[in-house]
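Lecture notes, structural biology module. Today: joint structure prediction for complexes of two components.
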Amino acid sequence: MEYFSPKVKKGIESKSKTISRRGFVLGLAKVAFFGIITSRLAYLQLFKSKEFKQLSDRNRYREIKEVPERGVIYDFKNRIIASNNQVYLLSIFPNEIKNLNEFFYELKPYIDFDILEIKRFKREIYRHKKTKKYQAYIIDKKLPWKVISNINYNLSNISYVQPIVSFERTYSHGKEFAHIVGYVGEPNKKDLKSISEKFLNTPNLKIGKNGIEKKFEDLIIGSPGKSVIETNAFGRQLKQISYNQGIKGKNFNSTLDSELQVFANKTLGNESGSVIVMTTRGEIRCCTSSPSFDANLFTYGINSFEYKKYLKDEKKPLSNKALSSQYPPGSTLKMLVAISAMENGIVNSNFKIRCKESTEYFGQKYHCWKEKGHGVVDMKKAIKESCDIYFYEVARLLGVDRMYKTALKFGLGQYVLDNFLEEKKGVFPNTKWKKKYIGQPWYLGETIIAGIGQGYIQTTPIQLCKMIAQIANGGFKIKPSLNANDNFELGEKIIENDDHLKIIKDSLVVATNEWKGTSYNSRIKGDLKFCGKTGTSQVRRISQRQRELDIKNKDLPWKFRDHSLFTGYGPVSNPEYAISVIIDHGGSGSSKAAPIAKKVMQKVFELYYPKGTNA
Amino acid sequence: MLRLNKSFLENFSTKIKSMDFVIFFLMILIALISLTVLSSLDFNEKGLVDKHFLRICFSLIVFLIAASINIKTWYKLSYFFYGFVILLLILVDFYGLAGKGAKRWLDIGIFNLQPSELMKVGVIMALARYYQYIKTDEIDRVKNLVVPITLIIIPFLLVIKQPDLGTALFILLVAISILWLAGLNLKIFTFGTLSLLILAPLSISFLKPYQKQRILTFLNPENDPTGAGYHVIQSKIAIGSGGFFGQGYKEGSQSNLSFLPEPHTDFIFTAFAEQFGFIGSLILLILFLILIFRIDSISKVSRSTFGRLLCFGVSFNFFVYIAINIGMVTGLLPVVGVPIPIMSYGGTAMLTSMFALGLVMSAKIHKDENIY
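The predicted structure, tokenised, for the full assembly:
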């Protein structure tokens, strides 16, 4: 204390001493403060330097990714199904922009926005900022090249924007291929989590949402390009630091046939249903679902009004019925039941039964579809005329577990394609299955109706097509696929005895090509013939009361009517193509599905067997 | 007439020869560093470096003139100079040029004069003069406090009215340091500090919203990264990214790509530190420290109380500027718009700094002169 307020003596001397002493104290304070500043500088420049260097780089470098061109999808004759158009768009990073009004004002001399557009973009940018903070926003206004080149030229004077050359997916048969080829769209939150990191923040990135676009995404999508650009504090671009060109996606050669696909879809018309054609080696030539929609609508995001309309439609235009609708196979299963019974040595082809109108097991009545019955039937006649009573008895003798084993060999109740998003697995029940999933023991009555493909059995159209193809090719296992580069060699033999196969094939030939056969009306006259089995699968159980009232199928509301099925192959002499047609709630198999199958098969013959050549 | 001129020149040259060359060269060196930093920045405004160079030259002339004038003459001119700057401050109120919400400048043709800058020297001179004749044992008397407090309060209020809180507080701080050096009893300071503390919450209610914001932002700059805290954050990034050796001349991305606000005035130290790193900053700090202590050493050899107080006042003034500016750009202190002496781009600041050093030089040259 003495030092800081010294007892000062009179006169100049003491005064100057005071000044010097106090000046010295100030000097100490100065040194102390310089010490503090130096240590602060050391902290910032030595200890935290790395961190600040990163922050400084983040300030000035912008990474701009370029969306790669998707691979083109071809049909098996190298006709384009899906390709890309070049478009010019503007991308921006919304979280850089401080004032949206100023931003649009600055763009005004270059782009002719109207007020409504600006309003919409502002709203969208605001929303985008909240949900996809680090993703570039695309101003989805297609810009003519003149505008883009003008902007590019003046880029150092315009803040925040980046013109991009991008690609938009176009489908040459948007409607006919909509389900199987699928479509692309902006990745949603869930997609962004599963997507590879290199695609994050790629402006205008569209990814495959379903169908082939989704399944072969990794192949088709390619790899994005990347450029690093130095910008100043106002987001103006100064120079390019680095540039990596992206890699174009690989082209995809599918097994599909555009001409057949378009024809089949047209043939289905307004019906709700599906047509699948595959070679007996498993190349899927046609896989169409009806009603359909235009996949091109989804590229830019379909408007919600239209989307809701599709969702509400009871015919479900958005669903890929060929792969995802599950039906009881009905009478189309009868070949499989017959094969199973013969292979297991339960019956032979001479096994006969008298078909009256109905039969009784354990006090329960089971009806044949034909009111007066078929009389005495053997296996060939039972398949040809689709006698229910015959197969009730065969099924009873065979039992469901043996039937299940054969079905498993043929691929029923199992995925046909690998990892295809929309495909459903279906169900082929057995006693264990029922115990596990329903919790009840198996009843014999259930075996009996399983003999005619009813009950718990659920199959998809592509499973039925695979099944018939495996019968047609001589009983060899196949692995159907959409990828033309896959191996389509026949697999192991699943029908051991060729005599059994011959009986089934012969029965199918007469079912279509002989009078009284179920699909006789849909036969193809001429050198090339086809054959197949109809099926009618019940959606509801017919009660005794209804049977007595004799309610006709067509009098019921649409969604309670029977499904109409047909599976077959052709040409008969040397089977190369299998087909399955299913019309939802179309009534009997012979009335709806078979005629469509006939038309499509005629087209197949026309396309692959030009006049003069013989199968 | 010719003879007179000749003798004047001879006289002038002998005087200059006896000046302190350490201070002179430090001053020139720092001015050159400032030109280097300015030339490293890409500017939209052309000719900034040339302008700055001309101002340095002009200020150097003022420095030499101030140095050659006898300290006795400066003593006599002190009140006149003080009064003149007060007049300029009043004129600013009427004819001042407005910028960023404050009236601070007078257009005098060559450049825009900022009288509040000059006042920092003016108040030192006036107080130093006042204490020349006050006896040490009478210094604490109330009667002897009236004049210095009036000398301080008038410019303080005039500058606060502009409004320029930062500069006003500077004037107050430098003035108080002179009162203390003159020997004012410590009790008075204790009392003064206490009453200031009590008044502080009250005075906050008189602050402009942007001034309040600055205080809040200082407390937590990361709270508002795009708003008021932006400057400090960017400045810290720039300084930190310099590392030990710096990014190199003209390689400062923060200062050149406009991330750093005002890299030529208040944040010139940041621009320097980004390019020349810790080592450069340390050297610059040492240069400043030598300059300050060199001024203090002149104070000690000066015979007159006026000279001693003047030198201490100037050195403390320099210290406060440097400390607060660097404290601000490194995020230690709140953002107050203060330049760094002899470095920042700004006419009046350069002029004032060199004029003040000229006064110090005059005290050195005429150290044996006493004023009775």
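Point to remember: Residues 268-301 of chain B form the longest helix (34 residues).
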